[in-house]
């Protein structure tokens, strides 16, 4: 039978999704007597709640109950979070609102229409407080405080010194520095948050169906907030999730809210978020100010880096934040050999929507300043940017490479990947293109970026938010455990259960490919169950879909679970055939002797005997075929006492070259070509791989060019619809050319690394580099996003005015 | 709230139902008729996920009321495959990896079905422009455009 790992096979998920038979959260049906929720939200960015009058709303026919923040207090406590600042985050505002969109009251009614009618009849009196939305102003001494009892708006602050930073800066010929601002943006899955929650009094148990995809460490956080033993919180994730890109990890406060409301009103409740709620009050990426300083030699070699990072986690710091600061900690120096590094990291709170996971998490915030400063080094030293990157890239012979901050890059050939990107983009001929564009009145620019794409997060990395002393006083966290269960039923058919809660990445398909290869069964005959049920699935704290962890971790759990089944089947066959286990292998549905193919035993019979005739099994063997494997990578160690941490398991590589033309009259940026080279180790399914890369790239393009969750300086939210929050549509997509090189990971059994987030991290940087190059003659510095025509036009005009003034 | 009788033929089957004046067509399809293949993504007519065909025109079902389809004929994603077989457009979505999470897909299939009926030989740019009424956050549109281009090519061969 043909091996299918590595083949571009089509997906098993597709038929149901193309025929309207997907089972998303809004399709799975509800228990009898389920009521529907609508949420009243704050229209103020910062205010005291003086009173809430629900009497008129409660009188409406069909309304079953209304719950306010104060009402839920007996049943919840604040969510725990991995920082020492005592922030009290509840799923609903208690006495003060801190962002536009924060839940203030919940209406429960017979249907959503009536629930929304009732919202309009609730009267809330607020006392407005001064809002703060600016990242740096939030740190000023007289800044308004969101959480008065903390005494500042700082949720977390840590400083890290790696190598000999001071010496590097003394030794440098030049110090090149700049401040960058990465904006707040989202991912806007087309399916919004959705959930059905039910409280059962007799067992004091909550059951919540939700399109939550982990990390399942948050199951413990939710159980803690609900003040129940964790096995009394059952979470069931439907097999289809309509996209997330990290954002749906932020469903959990609403899951707790709906659970409590179900308990208080006494019926199951369902809530499907609407789009305005999603944009204003779900979750988002983290906006960051970075001060970056590079110590460089005249030849462009970077000796050391200093970075001050200030992350705006919004109104409340909540799990998994401040992870945006630390998710990329191990790869802070990117694809470059820079041994000296200082990081001064802040997570601060302002009157904006709280943040959380988003595709690329932390990577885009890191690489925007890093790749921009690499280009700036080339500009200031009058070097070719490609030469500056070449001079600093980690060399092939340096792998496995330990980074300054403790990362262990497992494999790579960065120079090969980068040269391939330059070759694809015909970098040598670029000046000709610049001239051609100039003839047409356009400004041509080229951008380069090389980035490391981390995947499979180490559950210990987030504890780097604590000092070594603070860490020492609690139990260490490590690993990246993921589980898979494979069973064979009495008729020899295979079921696989995974806990990676896919949201479109094709985990069912790839799982079937792996099991097919290991057990020698056609993939079409393998049934993969992607629903996760915390009461019946094998799962662990790391389970779920994030940090591109399926290819590195989920697939490994499936692979080893399949090998457990294989081993048992061979043992059974060896016993019946009176053959040596080592002489047996599986081929075409049979266990056969390698020496004499006429000696064989059918897989169906081996599996069947474990069910129908367990007394025929070898002594001591359990009946049935049901094997679970929990996988973790050993390299995911806790941070050490020097704050060294390997925050991911595998590290891929992406090299980008982008060309743009800017219209100097309108400021419009047109991307001409986007060339990208990926090294994600061994590719498990190239069809899915390229689909993931396109999607990640276009999300990065959105961040670079269009997407921003905008607030005015008073904290009012400005982008509450898809008319205001602009996502890329098909006509905006440039020519994209993807190529792969493969340096297999030595750490994973299949050699695979995660992928699909790399260009989300690199695109904002590389596009900004291209635009900056186009505008170089004007002395313009791109240091924030998105690159809207408005922003470019203003930059150009200011530059022209300045130039005019200088000439006068 | 006034209740109206609505009789509508969807995918060849007649539905006779009572609806409130304000019930959206998208909610009617999903909740009253049980046709959950039509998805709701924004309820303000931008994302295109809820697109269905009413009397040979692709429309946003979140921007129509159920009462408006009284006496009309409709097609939804559930009506595309025949006798358990995917139609050529659906097959090409499989071949070209034109979907990932699949949430936006039904709307895109319905718009494309309507469009290809009226435009037999669109170029890539035409297809991209047609798709501008749909948001897909998974695919970057590449597989979608390829699937539609392939369908157009296949149809040419068949002619």
Defining key terms:
heterodimer; A: 808 residues; alpha+beta; eight-stranded mixed β-sheet; five-stranded mixed β-sheet; 29 strands; 24% strand; B: 159 residues; Ubiquitin-like (UB roll); DNA polymerase, domain 1; 2 domains; 5 helices; 35% helix
Helical content band of chain A: 25-40%
The rounded distance between the terminal residues' Cα atoms of chain B is 53 Å
> What fraction of the residues of chain B are assigned to beta strands by DSSP?
15-25%
What characteristic shape of chain B results from the CA principal axes? globular
Low-confidence stretches of chain A: none
Radius of gyration of chain B, rounded? 16 Å
The CATH topology label of the largest domain in chain B is Ubiquitin-like (UB roll)
**Can you summarize the main beta sheet of chain B?**
5 strands, mixed
Give an account of the 3D structure.
The complex is a heterodimer of chains A (808) and B (159). The model of chain A has no long low-confidence stretch (mean pLDDT 97). Chain A is built from 20 helices and 29 strands. In chain A, strand 28, helix 18 and strand 29 form a beta-alpha-beta unit. Chain A is an alpha+beta fold and 808 residues long. In chain A, strands 3-5-1-12-9-10-11-22 form an 8-stranded mixed β-sheet. A 5-stranded mixed β-sheet of chain A has the order 7-15-14-13-8. By secondary structure, chain B is of the alpha+beta class. Chain B folds into 2 domains: 3-79, Roll (Ubiquitin-like (UB roll)); 88-158, DNA polymerase, domain 1, CATH 1.10.150.120. In chain B, 35% of the residues lie in helices and 17% in strands. In chain B, helix 2 packs across helix 5 (142-158). In chain B, 54% of the residues are buried. At the A-B interface, helix 1 and helix 18 of A face helix 2, helix 3, helix 4 and helix 5 of B.
């Amino acid at each position: 039978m043909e091996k299918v790992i590595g083949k571009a096979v089509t997906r098993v998920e597709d038929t149901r999704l193309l025929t309207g038979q997907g089972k998303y959260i809004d399709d799975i049906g509800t228990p009898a007597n389920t009521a529907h929720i609508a949420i009243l939200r704050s229209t103020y960015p910062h205010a005291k709640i003086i009173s809430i009058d629900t009497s008129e709303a409660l009188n409406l026919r069909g309304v079953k109950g209304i719950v306010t923040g104060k009402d839920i207090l007996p049943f919840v406590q604040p969510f725990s979070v991995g920082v020492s600042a005592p922030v009290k985050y509840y799923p609903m505002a208690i006495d003060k609102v801190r962002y536009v969109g924060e839940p203030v009251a919940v209406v429960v009614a017979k249907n959503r229409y009536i629930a929304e009618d009732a919202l309009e009849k609730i009267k809330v009196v607020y006392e407005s407080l001064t809002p703060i939305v600016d990242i740096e102003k939030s740190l000023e001494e007289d800044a308004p405080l969101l959480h008065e009892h903390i005494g500042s708006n700082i949720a977390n602050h840590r400083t890290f010194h790696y190598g000999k930073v001071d010496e590097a800066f003394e030794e440098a010929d030049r110090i090149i520095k700049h401040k960058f601002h990465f904006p707040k943006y989202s991912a806007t899955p087309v399916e919004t948050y959705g959930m059905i929650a039910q409280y059962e009094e007799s067992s004091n148990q909550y059951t919540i169906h939700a399109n939550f995809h982990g990390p399942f460490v948050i199951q413990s956080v939710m159980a803690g907030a609900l003040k129940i033993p964790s096995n009394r919180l059952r979470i069931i994730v439907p097999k289809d999730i309509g996209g997330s890109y990290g954002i749906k990890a932020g469903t959990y406060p609403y899951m707790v809210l709906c659970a409590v409301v179900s308990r208080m009103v006494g019926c199951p409740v369902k809530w499907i978020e609407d789009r305005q709620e999603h944009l204003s009050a779900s979750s988002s990426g983290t906006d960051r100010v970075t001060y970056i300083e590079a110590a460089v030699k005249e030849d462009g070699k970077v000796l050391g880096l200093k970075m001050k990072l200030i992350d705006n986690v919004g109104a409340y710091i909540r799990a998994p934040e401040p992870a945006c600061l630390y998710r990329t900690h191990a790869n802070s120096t990117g694809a470059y050999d820079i041994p000296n590094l200082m990081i001064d990291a802040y997570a601060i709170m302002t009157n904006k929507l709280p943040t959380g996971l988003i595709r690329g998490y932390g990577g885009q915030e890191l690489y925007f300043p890093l790749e921009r400063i690499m280009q700036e080094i080339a500009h200031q030293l009058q070097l070719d940017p490609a030469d500056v990157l070449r001079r600093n890239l980690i060399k092939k012979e340096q792998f496995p490479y330990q980074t300054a901050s403790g990362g262990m890059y497992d494999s790579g050939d960065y120079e090969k990947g980068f040269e391939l990107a330059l070759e694809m983009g015909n970098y040598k001929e670029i000046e000709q293109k610049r001239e051609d564009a100039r003839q047409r009145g356009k400004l041509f620019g080229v951008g380069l970026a090389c980035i490391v794409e981390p995947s499979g997060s180490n559950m210990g990395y987030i504890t780097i938010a604590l000092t070594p002393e603070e860490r020492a006083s609690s139990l260490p966290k490590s690993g990246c455990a993921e589980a898979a269960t494979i069973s064979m039923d009495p008729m020899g058919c295979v079921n696989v259960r995974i806990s990676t809660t896919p949201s479109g990445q094709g985990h069912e398909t790839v799982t079937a490919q792996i099991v097919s290869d290991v057990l020698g069964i056609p993939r079409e005959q393998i049934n993969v169950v992607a629903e996760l049920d915390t009461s019946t699935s094998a799962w662990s704290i790391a389970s779920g879909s994030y940090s591109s962890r399926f290819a590195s971790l989920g697939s490994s759990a499936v692979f080893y679970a399949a090998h457990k089944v294989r081993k048992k089947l061979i043992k059974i066959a060896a016993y019946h055939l009176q053959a040596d286990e080592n002489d047996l292998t599986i081929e075409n549905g049979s266990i056969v002797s390698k020496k004499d193919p006429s000696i064989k035993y059918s897989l169906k019979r081996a599996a069947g005997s474990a069910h129908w005739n367990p007394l025929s099994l070898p002594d001591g063997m359990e009946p049935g075929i049901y094997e679970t494997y929990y996988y973790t990578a050993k390299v995911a160690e806790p941070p050490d006492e020097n704050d060294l941490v390997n925050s991911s398991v595998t590290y891929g590589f992406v090299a980008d070259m982008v060309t743009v033309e800017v219209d100097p009259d309108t400021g419009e940026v047109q991307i001409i070509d986007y060339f990208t080279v990926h090294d994600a180790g061994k590719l498990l399914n190239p069809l899915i791989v390229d689909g993931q890369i396109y999607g990640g790239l276009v999300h990065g393009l959105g961040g670079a060019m269009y997407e921003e969750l905008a607030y005015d300086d008073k904290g009012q939210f400005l982008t509450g619809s898809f008319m205001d929050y602009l996502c890329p549509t098909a006509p905006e997509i440039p020519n994209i050319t993807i190529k792969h090189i493969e340096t297999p990971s030595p750490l994973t059994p299949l050699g695979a690394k995660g992928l699909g987030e790399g260009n989300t991290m690199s695109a904002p940087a590389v596009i900004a580099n291209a635009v900056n190059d186009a505008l170089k003659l004007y002395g313009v510095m791109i240091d924030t996003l998105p690159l809207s025509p408005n922003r470019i036009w203003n930059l150009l005009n200011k530059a022209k005015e300045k130039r005019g003034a200088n000439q006068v | 709230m006034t209740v109206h009788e609505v009789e509508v033929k969807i995918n060849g089957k007649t539905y006779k139902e009572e609806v409130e004046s304000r019930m959206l067509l998208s909610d009617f399809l999903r909740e009253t008729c049980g046709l959950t293949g039509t998805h709701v993504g924004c309820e303000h007519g931008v994302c295109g996920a809820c697109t269905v065909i009413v009397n040979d025109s692709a429309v946003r079902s979140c921007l129509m009321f159920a009462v408006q389809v009284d006496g009309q004929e409709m097609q939804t994603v559930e009506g595309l495959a025949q006798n358990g077989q995917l139609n050529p457009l659906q097959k090409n979505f499989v071949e070209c990896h034109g979907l990932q999470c699949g949430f936006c897909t039904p709307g895109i299939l319905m718009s494309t079905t309507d469009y290809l009926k009226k435009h037999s030989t669109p170029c890539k740019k035409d297809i991209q422009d047609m798709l501008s009424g749909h948001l897909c956050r998974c695919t970057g549109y590449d597989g979608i455009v390829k699937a539609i281009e392939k369908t157009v090519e296949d149809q040419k061969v068949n002619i």
